[in-house]
Amino acid sequence: MEKFTRLDGLVAPLDRNNVDTDAIIPKQFLKSIKRSGFGPNAFDEWRYMDIGQPGEDSSLRPKNPNFVLNQPRYQGAQVLLTRANFGCGSSREHAPWALLDFGFKAIIAESFADIFFNNCYKNGIVPIVLPAAEVEALFRQVEATPGYKLVVDLQAQAVIRPDGYGVPFQIDAFRKECLINGWDDIGLTLRHAEKIREFEEMRRINQPWLFS
Amino acid sequence: MSKTLYDKLWENHVVHQEADGTALLYIDRHLVHEVTSPQAFEGLKLAARKPWRISSIVATADHNTPTDHWEEGIKDPVSRQQVETLDANIREVGALAYFPFKDPKQGIVHVVGPENGATLPGMTVVCGDSHTSTHGAFACLAHGIGTSEVEHVLATQCLLQKKSKTMLIAVDGKLGKGVTAKDVALAIIGTIGTAGGNGYAIEFGGSAIRGLSMEGRMTLCNMAIEGGARMGFVAVDDKTIDYLKGRPFSPKGEIWEKAVAYWRTLHSDAGAEFDHVITLKAEDIRPQVTWGTSPEMVVAIDAVVPDPAKQPDPVKREGMERALQYMGLNPNTPIKQISVDKVFIGSCTNSRIEDLREAASILNGRHIAANIKLALAVPGSGLVKRQAEAEGLDKVFVAAGFEWREPGCSMCLAMNADRLEPGERCASTSNRNFEGRQGPGGRTHLLSPAMAAAAAIAGHFADVREIL
């Protein structure tokens, strides 16, 4: 996983509640057995005028000019700004894979669905929860200012606006450390292998029905 | 000190805890299907790691498998490759049980686990699938995980977790005739919203929940995720234990007795405190139908499509307007006047034997309306299918004009050939009415199997209570 410390990125607004993972990456693309290449199909049904198929060259497909991420001013965006309950629905990690492949490294929302929130961390994407009023203010600024960028300072736990105003955000200490160092969770957990083995042995004795 | 069921389940699985409360939780059961596992197996291999405990794995192919013409195999080459990749991975790694495509016991992973006794009370159950919450019906700590976590569980038999907040949703009283677990689930989501359970582990309690069968409890817990909670569960009682007795992977003899003694402790203690409590009266719950593109957009069958003009919040109002446009509906239209093109009875929410019985009891001696282009009955597993056939339910479905299919996820998410065409409207017993969920441009209305059967007969949504 790539390390995340500080990002100075163009912001794209997606002004909706309850953006679900079916919308982020539709089911036909889940048939892939790879982790990469989902970016061209992120938000496929909203982004294109036709119905996408896996393996197709999406650069040749007709784009929906009304979909916000197709607007020229948001090309190259690295920060996605959205509303409440982003990433609800299916647990598909293809959703953060698609967002990352599209170019997003941080997502700011009023709230996230739990499984998606978790999946972001596993891929080096920072999901940032801000109060509704701060999110609303950011929406107004993004829409009013072409080329609007935000700094995400993970070390300082703050989103810094171009006017210098910093909005603090919360993150678990353990997750923050993993992101900053780009640590592999599995490697970290396996440091406790001995403890896991002992726990398992006790369990086998006390609850043998779990080990049939 | 009084403990909640969640406290008990949590404490029973903590291997290690970090200073900030992040815990390493031991995983008892790892359910695996073809869509969310290939990258995890590949990652394991690339890092030269071995799976920690093969006997925790129960696998099946369900999302991509066709529901008809099994003799022709899987025609879509990309789907076939994914299923064959699972075959190869399980062949290489091993599993407690594998039910591949065409196996007599193959089916939807969340139907297969419990019916084989592979889901036992007190377990942590995970799967790369959000509807893993289903297994909470057995007082399990059960939830969906992403593919990175699938790999983490394969490699370490553990998951990194922060403890959730607790919510008790108590439904007391007696459900009316024709009102089912699905209606309870939808009514709850309509009350708390699709984000209402974010950050919570939900315990479902109250006399109406205790009155549900295990199938009904599975339907309810299945939909916890649609209320934003990764997991929902129900305490152990006699029904739990009776259901599990004699299942293939259920313990036997002396170990069974020991297990039952432990399982009997799996309930919240009297006086246990929850972070949030919601109470519903069973008598107030009427048959539900969703009208929009989120499960929280739901009303009772005798209601009308809501009017966005009455919604004060601008973001919510726009969401409602967008949903109505997508669904091709006008505000204030009576739900009963909305006609239906297709009917789908199936999915991990409603494809168990009780669901099929419920639908068949409505369809018996009746026929689907002329405007219904396709009505599908898709059993949740091979075992459910054969049980239904032994009871003659297949004949009822077929006589009523339904197609009786092979088991799988089918038109719940339309990864196989079963799907809606753009603009088609479906009465569906599945769990998600998101845009494009059942096929690009498809319009999904969620309801119970009995209500789906009633809609199939009428050709439009109908109140099953008037047919009973």
Quick recap of the structure?
Chain A has 212 residues and is of the alpha/beta class.
Pick out its properties.
heterodimer, A: 212 residues, seven-stranded mixed β-sheet, 7 strands, 32% helix, B: 468 residues, alpha/beta, five-stranded parallel β-sheet, 15 helices, 19 strands, 17% strand, globular
Helix content of chain A: 25-40%
| Helix percent band of chain B | 25-40%
User: Could you describe the largest sheet of chain B, including whether it forms a barrel?
Assistant: 5 strands, parallel
Pairing-aware structural class of the strands and helices of chain A?
alpha/beta
Assembly context of the chains: heterodimer
Largest sheet of chain A: 7 strands, mixed
Shape of chain A: globular
Q: Quick one: which chains have the greatest interface?
A: A-B, 60 and 82 residues
Q: Number of DSSP strands of chain B?
A: 19
Tally of contiguous helical segments of chain B: 15
Model description:
The complex is a heterodimer of chains A (212) and B (468). Chain A has 212 residues and is an alpha/beta fold. Helix content of chain A is 32%, strand content 15%. Chain A has helices at 21-24, 44-47, 94-102, 114-121, 132-144, 173-181, 185-190, 193-206, and strands at 6-14, 79-82, 106-109, 126-129, 149-153, 158-160, 166-168. Chain A has a seven-stranded mixed beta sheet with strand order 4-3-2-1-5-6-7. In chain A, helix 4 (114-121) links the parallel strand 3 (106-109) and strand 4 (126-129). Chain A is globular and about 65 Å long. Chain B has 468 residues and is α/β, with parallel strands linked by helices. Helix content of chain B is 31%, strand content 17%. Chain B has helices at 5-11, 38-46, 77-93, 109-115, 147-156, 181-192, 207-210, 214-222, 238-244, 253-263, 314-327, 353-363, 382-390, 393-399, 449-458, and strands at 14-17, 23-26, 29-32, 57-60, 97-99, 124-127, 141-144, 158-161, 165-172, 200-205, 231-233, 276-281, 288-290, 298-300, 342-345, 374-377, 403-404, 425-428, 443-446. In chain B, the strands form five sheets. Chain B has a five-stranded parallel beta sheet with strand order 5-4-3-6-7, sandwiched between helices. In chain B, strands 17-16-15-18-19 form a five-stranded parallel beta sheet. A four-stranded parallel beta sheet of chain B has the order 11-10-9-12. The radius of gyration of chain B is 21 Å and the shape is globular. The model of chain B has no long low-confidence stretch (mean pLDDT 98). The interface between A and B is large, with 60 and 82 residues.
